[in-house]
Every structure is written in C-alpha cells, then in structure tokens.
Amino acid sequence: MPPERTSGGSGTKRKTTAFKPPTRTNSKPSSTGGKTSAAKASSARSVAVDVDDNDDADQEPAPVASQDQTPTIPAKLLTRLLHEHFEDDRTRISKDASQAMQKYMEVFVREALARAAFERQESGVSRRGDAFLEVEDLEKLAPQLLLDF
Amino acid sequence: MAELSESEALEQRLKSALWYSIGKIVDEESLKLDVNATPQFIGALTEMVWAQIETVSKDLESFAKHAGRTTITTDDVLLLTRRNEGLESLIRSFVDGLRGASQGGRGGQGKSRRR
After folding, report:
1. I want to staple B19 with a disulfide (CB 3.0 to 4.6 A). Which of A90, B13, B46, B107 is the partner?
2. Model's pTM, two decimal places?
3. Rounded-to-integer distance, Cα B52 and Cα A129, Å
4. Which domains occur in chain A, in start order?
5. Which of A109, A130, A133 sits opposite B25 (nearest CB)?
6. What angle do CA A66, A70, A71 make, to 5 degrees?
C-alpha cells in the first residue's frame, strides 16, 4: 500500500507542477493580475446564472475556456466559502493567503483525481476500455487523501 | 422557517458554484489522465472539497488567533501543509513567487525557515 501511494503522489506532484507556470504568469504581473481577477469575478457571476438557468448549457464551455486557461476554483468563490465557515466575523484573510488557499484547494482536487485515475488504471483496465471514475473510487481514496491534506 | 430555508438556499447556490468550477477542473484533468468521471463522482468530490474548506477555514482561523491576529496570512496556510512535505514545498514556492511578484520587500520574515 505505501509504495503505491508514494508513486501516485510523486506522479501527481510532477503533473501539478506542470500546471503551475500558466497560473503563475497570470498572477505575477500586477496589471494582468487585475484582469484575471476581473475575469474570475465575471465567471463566478456567470456560474450562478448558468447553474440556475441551465438554458445555455451548450454554449457554456467555449466562453469559459477563453476566460480561464487553467480552470481553478474562482478566488471570489473560495474567499466567500472560507468566510462562510469562519466562526468569528472579524476574521480576515490576506490576498496572498487566499491565493495560496486557491492553490491548495486546486492541488487537493487534482490530487484526488490523479489518485482515482491511478487506482482505476491499476485495477480496472481489464474490465473495460474507457475508465469511468465512480463514487466508490473516491470513497476508497478519501481517508488517505484527507490525512495527507 | 423562512430564515432557515434562506440560508439553506444560499448554501445550495454556493455548492452549485463550487460544483461547476470543480467540474471544469475535472473536465480538464480527465483529458490529461485519459479517464472519464461520472456526474456522481463530481458531486461527491464537491462534497469532499466543501467539507475540506470547512475544516481548513476553521484551522486557519485558529492559527491566526493563536498568533494574535485576526487576519489570516500565508504563514497560516503553510502551517496547514506542515504534515505533507511535498505539498508544503509546492505551496511555499507558490507563496515565494507571489512575494517576489508583489515586491522584493518583507523578504526575511516568514520564508526563511527552509529557503
């Protein structure tokens, strides 16, 4: 069990690092940083609309893909969620910290996916050609993932 | 009654938004990993992320409070990752990148532990 975990983890880390450059270059220059956050804000707004209406489900992917090159959890949404769970209303979060949290949660999601896909490839290749990740795959990896994060 | 359902509705909306953005990450990642994810998988993952955000936000708040602050800083986020070396170094280099981008100043305080 431990060697599997290690190999899965290191493989994911390499992959996640590969995603980092685009995200970083977006947030590094202060001028583009403003644009990115504005784009994210508008995408967050459109999220609420899209989810409620479900009318333009077919049109969704194209505009979103052009807005965000690397999909991530929108900063505004994450900050909102964090504030939602704070016990003290006076608690604030610095901008850098919220960006780091964004990274943290993104890694969390991608790690979960990578571990699920890894398990699938280890065990389920013989079953079918194209692998579908199921809830039970997540159930299997959840305990260790939560310990690691 | 009305107030309760209102907060429930808010939670549902936030969860939907989270679901949507996680779905986008899953779509991108499943192309790279050459797998597909069922909608139920994405839903369960959303629930997991939601629960993780809940724990993490309380941890961060406690860390900041313990340091006598009301504002959460990157040091608190790094403290979250203390048990996972790979994650810590990843977040640390990300934070260092942010600092380097914003200014050269305020360098020596927090980041000197490992680098």
Report:
1. B46
2. 0.68
3. 33
4. 75-148 (1.10.20)
5. A109
6. 90
